[in-house]
Amino acid sequence: MAEENQPVRGLVLAGGGAKGSYQVGVYQALLELGWTPQVITGASVGCLNAALFVTGQEDAAAELWKSMDNRSVLVMPEGKTREELREFLMDTLRAGGLNTEPLGQTIDRYLDESAVRHSPIRYGLVMTEMNNLRSIQCPIEEIPEGRLREYMLASSACFPALRPIEIDGVKYIDGGWRDNMPLELAASMGATELIGVDVDGVGYTRPNTTGLPTRIIRSHWDLGPLFDFDGERAAKNIFLGYLDTMREFGRLGGTAYGIMPAQDGFLERFAKEYHSQLTAAIQRAPTLQLTEGLARQRKHYPAAFSQDPTAPTRGALAPLELAAEELGVPCDMPYTPRMLALTFLGQFDKDPADRFKVLLGMEDGNVLGEAAMASAVPEDFVVALVSRTLSEMKFF
User: Fold this and answer.
1) Cβ contacts of residue 274 below 8 Å, gap of 6+?
2) SS3 call for 103
3) Using 50, 70 and 90 to split pLDDT, how confident is the model at 309?
4) Distant-in-sequence, close-in-space partners of 146: CB < 8 Å, separation ≥ 6
5) Which of 355, 153, 329, 205 is nearest to 258 (CA)?
6) What single DSSP character describes residue 81?
7) CA-CA distance, 26 to 165, in Å (whole number)?
8) Buried-most residue among 13, 69, 205, 283 (CB within 10 A)?
């Protein structure tokens, strides 16, 4: 446990099926940063990752996720057409859910119950009693010896897609049904500082009533379908988790992309020129101030101005990141601002600024028509404005 006057760190892993690969990257980054938890709790797939983490198997967890497919988790028929597979899934749901025995076999290969019980990191999971939807909180000490596998399967039984798990005559379903981010369990186990990892699962996330310092790490990006276990996507999600955690601890900048610090002055010059171009466009059509702000809001980027002390850099980066996202710049690698700009420029043949030549001062014409088009597709306007900004900077 933590030394006197030192916080007891609790890591809380939410449920989310195949999206759980993201949590591996988060944990890798936390260890690299020296943030070692004394308590790890999880719901559903989070409890499976947690068991690997508390026994020091984070590398094995990464390899497992990268090699996993649907048949590693679920009993799925082979040789079915898309329509036949759909019929199989519907029939299975009506019959009570998919068989998760392959998941049980995967747990058997990696789970060392004794190691979990004797780990210096305390382990806990949540599951849900099916008949009354009561959340059951289970610190490792309250799970009977030799039965951790059953409890983990119960916590992961995402009903109605997966079959309930019966323990001592009581049926249990996915812990995420009632507590997808078990912060309170971690607090009750002694944690005084929390990090939660949200992977956008389908369960119910309770309000955080612990009163403890809490950070929530989540991805800006879509981590993929809940029940589509794919090694290539898992590898990408793992790296996204790593980048997001480094950003949370101030080692990287940005909102969506992992932005490495650079001392070349590029970001400052970009921000100045972007502001100049936007100001000139607003003078031609005042509604563009709302249009640009709406694009940021819809894509979950920070506003241009904020009281948040981290906002100046993130706010300056936001239009460049937004434009890169719109044109499909890969997100699973770090960039400097200059590198991101160069990659953005390589994503198109026809200059996006040509759609708004009047608004951007490139030619005379119908300001109202282009302003209306910009308001309809605000993200496209920001892409065009970023392109125009970079062209005027002449840095390339």
Assistant:
1) 316, 319, 320, 385, 386, 389
2) helix
3) very low
4) 113
5) 329
6) -
7) 29
8) 13
DSSP 182-220: -HHHHHHTT-SEEEEEE---SS------S-S-EEEEE-S
Compute the distance between CA of residue 139 and CA of residue 311 in angstroms, rounded to an integer.
39
Nearest by Cα to 254 from 333, 342, 345, 352? 333
Which tens digit of pLDDT belongs to each residue from 323-332?
Answer: 999 999 999 9
Instruction: Please tell me the distance from the alpha carbon of residue 335 to that of residue 324, in angstroms, as a whole number.
Output: 11
- Tokens representing 355 are 């759609």
Retrieve residue 192's tokens: 């005084």
pLDDT digits (tens, 9 = 90+) for 13-68: 999 999 999 999 999 999 999 999 999 999 999 999 999 999 999 999 999 999 98
Band of residue 82 on the pLDDT scale cut at 50, 70, 90: low
| CA 348/CA 78 separation, integer angstroms | 41
The tens digit of pLDDT for each residue in 93-152 reads 554 545 556 676 778 888 999 999 999 999 999 999 999 999 999 999 999 999 999 999
Residue 31 makes CB contacts below 8 A (sequence gap 6+) with 58
Residue whose tokens read 């282009």 = 370
Q: Which pLDDT score, from 0 to 100, does residue 158 have?
A: 81
Considering just the CA atoms, what is the radius of gyration of the chain in Å?
24
- Name 60's Cβ contacts closer than 8 Å, sequence gap at least 6: 52, 110
Residue 356 DSSP symbol: G
Mean pLDDT of the chain: 90
pTM of the model: 0.89
Question: Sign of torsion, CA 175 180 183 184?
Answer: negative
Distance CA 79, CA 391 (A): 53
pLDDT tens readout for residues 312-369: 567 889 999 999 999 999 999 999 999 999 999 999 999 999 999 999 999 999 899 9
Position 163: which residue type? R
Cα distance between residue 178 and residue 206, in whole Å: 8
Instruction: Give dist(CA 218, CA 35) in Å, integer.
Output: 17
d(CA 67, CA 335): 28
Sign of CA dihedral 136, 140, 141, 145: positive
